[in-house]
Amino acid sequence: RWVVSSDNLIRVFKFSVVERKKSNMAASLVDAAVGRFGAMLVDQKTKETSIFIIFRKRFEWLKRKLFIVSMYLKDADVQSVHNNSVEQWLLDAADIAWDAEDILQQCAVESLYTNNDGNTQSSRVIFRYKMGRRIKDIRERMKSVMEDAAELKLVADLTHSEQPSTSASQNVKWKKASVLERDARPVAIEPKVEEIFGLIDDPEVPVIAVVGMGGIGKTFLMQNVFNRIKDRFEYSIWLSISQTYSLQRLQADLAAKINFKEVVNGRISEVQAAEFIHSRLESKRSLIVLDDVWRATAEDDLISKLGIPTGRCKIVVTTRNVDDIRKIKARVYDMKPLSEEDSWMLFCAFAFPDCEQNRLPPHLEQIAHQIVKEGGGMPLAVKTVAASLADKASLKVWESKLSELREVDNRHDPVMEILRLSYDSLPLYVKPIFTFLSFFPADEVIDCEYMINLWIGEGLTSRGEDQWETGFAYLQILHDRCLVKVEENSHSKIYCQVDGMILDLAISLSTKTKCVFATEKAFANSTGKTTNYRRILLANSCIDDNTIVNNSVGSPEFVRTLTLYRNKIDTIPAKFFARMNVLRTLDLSSTNISTLPESVGNLKLLRVLSLCCTQIKEVPNCVRNVTRLCFLDLSRCRFLQRLPAWIGELKCLEHLNVVGCSPELASCMPAGISKLLSLRILRSDYLNFSIQENKFLKLEHLARLTQLQELSINVNHDMELKGLEEGVLEQLVKMRSLAIANEIPPVEVADSLKFPHFPDIMESMNDLEKLFLCNFSVPNWVTDNFKKLRIIEISGSCSDYPDLENLPCLERLNLLDNNNATELPRGFGKAGGFPNLRFLEISDFPLLKELPDLEEEAMQSLEKLCIHSCKGLKKFPEGLERVKNLRKIEVYEGSNEIVESLHGGGQYWAKLKASIPSLNISVNQ
Known about the structure:
Blueprint: H1 9-14, H2 25-42, H3 44-47, H4 50-54, H5 56-71, H6 73-79, H7 84-114, H8 121-151, H9 176-179, H10 190-201, E1 207-211, H11 218-229, E2 235-240, H12 247-257, H13 261-264, H14 270-281, E3 286-293, H15 295-299, H16 302-306, E4 313-319, E5 331-334, H17 340-351, H18 362-374, H19 379-389, H20 395-406, H21 414-424, H22 431-434, E6 446-447, H23 448-457, H24 467-480, E7 485-488, E8 494-497, H25 500-510, E9 515-516, H26 519-522, E10 535-537, H27 545-551, E11 561-563, E12 585-587, E13 608-610, E14 631-633, E15 655-657, E16 681-683, E17 710-715, H28 718-725, E18 737-742, E19 747-749, E20 752-754, E21 770-774, H29 781-785, E22 791-795, E23 812-816, E24 839-843, E25 864-868, E26 888-892, H30 896-902, H31 907-915, E27 920-924
Parallel strand pairs: 1-4, 1-5, 2-3, 3-4, 9-10, 10-11, 11-12, 12-13, 13-14, 14-15, 15-16, 17-18, 18-21, 21-22, 22-23, 23-24, 24-25, 25-26, 26-27
Antiparallel strand pairs: 6-8, 7-8, 19-20
């Protein structure tokens, strides 16, 4: 995960060219806040608080008025684009909704404190007095808003439901296979890739500058180049540059990729760091891409300051303006807009993904050509407009879109204005979560699960059991509109990336939602008055202990999300969090902290806590009091050896991540884990269980966790295997991802090893999507029952494999570490087999002699084939040249025959390249 730092604030000013169209972000904020406020009022726990009882009539009045305001949102949302007064009305309404929700949140906090003996009667009276004053102020502001609505002649939408907008999506189940990046069918990319290849191969060109407008596809082009050519270099490094970069941070990122720990830890000066980097790279053939270089960066001669030598290094920079790189002596490659024909092909790929170009809806074809012309050949604009129309069959909708595009002012930044139109067309309930993209820098890899937990932390998804699914449904909408690019990595984790232009839009919208990116604005001002920001994003901001100490007194009272990720913080003052009573999300990951202040225990409403990659040796005891915690990330805390026995007291915990902690942790998980009845994700290294009566977790304890969807376990004893066979996990029917490794030595039968069958009782896990098996035989019923499987990894010398080719959703298949198999089942090459398989890896099969030949239409979706350490394999299968989607073949430690046939100019190489010219073949003997 990466979170944006204060440098992105500069992007807001560049965005000012489109300020003539004001944001309608406020409408979605009001809608979301009204929904949350209404839900809190009907919550039984809220009704039982003394504050609610005292002010019940005022809260009910406020609820009715907010509901009336919400009825005007649809009309105000439309009018605000052209009417500044309506825009201000929306911002005022949003402030009221936020403040009303804050009051209820603080009442909830106060009710929790009421049970504390240290809370005196006088302090409760003072609190009630303050709340009464604030409610009175909101009532007066609400009256003014209602009067302004009448004066602005806003029209109420009488069909508006009192239910929050998110309710429409609560039943939308996220189909993960569909979220994966659709085939973008890149147009006109191959000639450009070859031209860049030529410049990289030219010894007279040490530095290349790819120049073009934002949204023209510079990053997309270089990603294609980088991925195809990176294996030819000893170091291949990609660095994303921001408008106001931190040289120290860039040096650390670069050093991390060449294993230079002294620079990564920031223990030396920038000059020394540059010297070290230079010495490491000067003798290595390297490819370094500096993506999105800006004027301020270029004026500092970034290449030399980073320490990059221009001798054996090939350097490529991408920039929006050639003037921004005037101090870099580079060969300029000027990106041109797409031709009309290529624009049309790209548009059709996203607007009509299920239609062939000669079978488009006849009533839309003419207007579609007109819309494509308005895109100006800018790929980002073309595909976002196309994606916004993909599910629209009405000619009137298309005519309205064309009219909007023709109103775009080409004198400023047409691509940005077109992106704004795509944002405007989002459902109202999705708009608030779009602003969370501003947390992350352009083109960085974002952990989707973490981002969705941020949404959940602020209450932006449904409150029912489907809020996790709803979050992924919202992500699906952003993906379908081409506002994010979602894909799955080789470890089956879902990530997304944000284009720089889209990030600009998200940051601009965030600044209007009481979100701040600068340290000096986040905390108390010179008068000592605390700020009222609700999101404080200070990651990568060069914050140290002194900054934290100096600002601890003025900690903002109303902040809901606080991010201090990747700052040089060792300690946090004891009272730093004392005033943050409504904090929902706290991210301290990748800092140097080893404990937390006791004031964290006062964060009664905290739902998301990330301590990933910190120095903690034990979970701080103050976390025990954060009883509403839903998401706890302790991953990669390498000194953390065990979880506390009281972990079971966190009854609301749904997501617990302890991957990559000390190896001891996986073998001494506390029995209290079994009390986490809401737990859905238990992400860990393979867990080892106790077979004795003690305080540690036993296999049978897991039977209580009926909501569990992810689990990784080792089977070390016969009684554990017997427990699995007798159905100890039978009730875990919601399981989505299951990893089981059998560590019991196999039985030798007739000169071969016999492994136990994957237990039949597991048939009940019909929703399973990911299955990782080690040293288990795979029964045939797996392919009959697990129709939703997308990922299978089978490791160990099992005797055979079931008919995996019949699994309709299978996208990734890893076959590993089989010392017995000499061939694979013939069904692997069957016509129509593996219809959706995208990635196939076969590793460490020393006796494997051949792969099945592929019949017509076999593995037609395959994109990547990896063959590792299969020395017995002498030839590749026939028919592979018919797999037109194949993008890459990797062969490591292959036989001489395979290496010879796949090296450039080899017979099989020539056959494949003749059929699939863009195929990337990598061979390492």
